[in-house]
Amino acid sequence: MGVLDIVPAGVLTGENVRKLFNYAREQKVPVNVTSSSTANAVLEAARDIKAPIILQVSQGGSAFFAGKGIANDKQQASILGAVAAAHHIRTVAKAYGVPVVLHSDHCAEKLLPWFDGMLAADEAYFKEHQEPLFSSHMLDLSEEPKEKNIATCVEYFKRMAPLGLWLEMEIGITGGEEDGVDNTGVDNAALYTQPEDVYDVYKALNPISPNFSIAAAFGNVHGVYKPGNVKLQPQLLGAHQAYTCEKLGGQPAQPLYLVFHGGSGSTKEEIQTAVENGVVKMNVDTDTQFTYLTGIRDYILKKKDYLLSQVGNPEGADKPNKKFYDPRVWVREGEKTMAARVKEACKDLGNVGQCLSLRRYIIR
Ligand SMILES: [Zn+2]
Q1: Is-catalytic flag, 287?
Q2: Residues 20-47: pLDDT tens digits?
Q3: A single GO molecular function, which one (predicted)?
Q4: Model-level pTM?
Q5: For residue 284, how far is its CA from the centre of ligand 1 (angstroms)?
Q6: How far is the CA of 264 from the centre of ligand 1 (A)?
């Protein structure tokens, strides 16, 4: 049985998101997308290796999707860009034949107007299509006091659950710097979440809906850095599962859906331990950003003499260069190298061939 026997191809919402996460509790790799080009590259990679995939937009990535020329003082560009990205992905996803989870990344308290705008778009879409526009959103109030963090999540989750939206929340802090949020200076102790705190989240959210996941910090850092003082401790996730399991009377063994932020640069062993401890989603952004560049960079360096003027190259002073500077040629090189990196991340996570379906072969 393949994953396509459980959920359809295209953007998933509601119970289908949970079915996908339950499906062998395999990790699914979300990749940050900032344009239709990066979104298509990720979908192409997922199709080639028959893997379900999560596409997510950050607040800054959303604004970029709308266009940097639009003001964003009230999050208007981030709202428009997230909605535009969602519609683009919804329009093309089915053609790639893989299940897609459409997610928005970290939303800190000061960015809540962005969240409100996306949620309004979900509610409007729901009225027409009986499902939300997105599959899932992340609220990240991890910098706020715990009580306020959880209370804010509860308030939003009550609005989200009836639409069939998944909620990802963060407790404990992901270190490093990403998208303008700088946690490079926080106390190391805050980078490791306590099992009691994770259980408090479970207790508050589970009565509303089971469709939520927790980004508990275990020494995660956004970005790729030289090894420093912060050590990744994915075995701590096992302690969270055990603590909540005990509080629930010993069943089920892994009650929590956990999320791994800052996956770029992690070792295969660290990833494996995280998977064993119930991680259903690992974020990779820094590495795919770099690989999107490498294809374009190498093309420009290799074809430099064909790119200095519109006419005239080493083959002759009157030779045209249009076929070398056409953006579809050099942007495509970035898509190819980015897609290769996405495939590699999926392979590290065992997320390959999941969409192969026996039933579909028989029908054929
Ligand atoms: Zn993150």
Answers
A1: no
A2: 888 756 555 566 777 889 999 999 999 9
A3: zinc ion binding
A4: 0.90
A5: 9
A6: 10
